[in-house]
Amino acid sequence: MEETKQTNQYLIPAAILIAGAFVAAALYFSSSTSVPVAIDAGNNQPAVAQQPEPTGSTDSVRPVTSEDHIKGSLDAPIKIVEYSDFECPFCKRFHDTMNEVMDKYGDSGEVAWVFRQFPLEQLHPVKAQAVAVASECAAEQGGNDTFWKFTDGYFDVTLTNNRTDIETVIPQLVKEAGLDQAAFQTCFESGKYDDHIAADIANAVETGGRGTPWSVMIGPDGTTYPINGAQPLAAVEQLISIAQKN
Amino acid sequence: MQYIGTLIKVLRNPYYSLLAALIAGFIFSMAVWLPSFQLIWIVSQTASLSESLSLLWSLYGAIGSNFSLVSAIYTILIAILFGMNIALLTYYIRKMRGGASGLRGTGLSSIGGLVSGVFGIGCAACGTFIFTSVLTLFGVGGILAYLPFGGEEFGFLGVGLLLYSLYTLTKKITDPLVCPI
Known about the structure:
heterodimer, A: two-stranded antiparallel sheet, 7 helices, 13% strand
């Protein structure tokens, strides 16, 4: 009987310790560098197989250049590099959030938004990669503004989670952007942007991205801050405020 | 109905309601801050305390932006139910009633519910939730494609286990002490 009472006394602390251990394990797993399996739509090979081992450091973010898709000024002291998947519902939400951020900080040149590709082929097979290619082809033909017009337009209409009828939506967006449809189709089917997209995915993984949306904010002093998922506008604004002071 | 009355009676005591609220708040905070743990760590190293606290506060908005409606609901439920479970367990033990074996089963249900819920936390659709990380760690990430709710099953399971645990606890508190035949 005495032993039973002793067991009872230790049960709560033990339960709390076990729960704490699991939460700690969850924290560990959430900040570890396990990699989502992405398949290259062009050759059906796992894209991650050709990627470097992830270091999980946001400092590995590829430098922003004029080759990137940028909303805002390339010289902005704060840059938010987003790795996004066109069929991810949370990327759609974060796209709206980032547009709000740019409405507030873009015109003054305080913040620039860089869009990089991170299609999760395992979760959104074929379509995520296809739309990523389409956005690159739109940019090739129409430049940076056309890329953003295509991207904003796609996120406006996508049903997400591979439910979007891309056979209808992509040609519609191409038409609205005033692009040469034949030239677009040639680019779209060429596979010429597969390597570029694979490089973006590799860089996302290198910086610690395990899902989408994954973003790295680069502060004026070069400090990098990870933004995991579709964090709310208030959090992004608070982070901008912190980065500005450093 | 009788068991609900017991639950209300225990939680009317400020000590147990405060304990339940603190535990629920802790679990909810962990769930919301989990994807931003690395960010919080970096900010805490460079920013002032007030700025860090402001960031933590602003991250609570992630329950609306970084969770699906379903996962937001079960995350909140898991936090509340786990808090209530701990409060009831504490009440039960302080009253020194019942045998260890029954309690052990109830405790396991609570922990199982929390663990299961933790695995369900995050963006199941985009591969950022805990279960994806665990699966990919073992090289079986593809199993997610075969789960009808993409891993959110663990959140539902967590709620179920915690409800079961709550039921058995209130039953033990309510039932009169008798010597079994």
